[in-house]
Specification:
This is DUF4287 domain-containing protein. By secondary structure, this protein is mostly helical. Helices cover 55% and strands 0% of the residues.
């Protein structure tokens, strides 16, 4: 007999995907809302993706994965 596959009830809010899936842990770890980090990236100026990632890593001691997720979201929303 095949194993049953558990499925999420359809009445629950779907989990975020992509860069947004990192947002709850970013807010918890760094103590600032995502809007704060979007403002930080905007103030950094017209930099390329990896330049923005490195800015968050060096100036705000952010981990690479979190910085990359924020920058990907920021660039997609420009």
């Amino acid at each position: 007999m095949p194993a049953r596959v558990k499925r999420r009830p359809s009445n629950r809010t779907p989990l975020p995907k992509g860069p947004a899936s990192y947002f709850p842990s970013i807010e918890k770890k760094y103590g600032q809302p995502i809007d704060h980090w979007m403002a930080v990236l905007k103030q950094a100026g017209p930099l390329k993706h990896m330049e923005l990632v490195n800015h968050l890593k060096t100036e705000h001691q952010m981990g690479h994965g979190h910085a990359n997720a924020l920058v990907a979201w920021f660039i997609a929303k420009r």
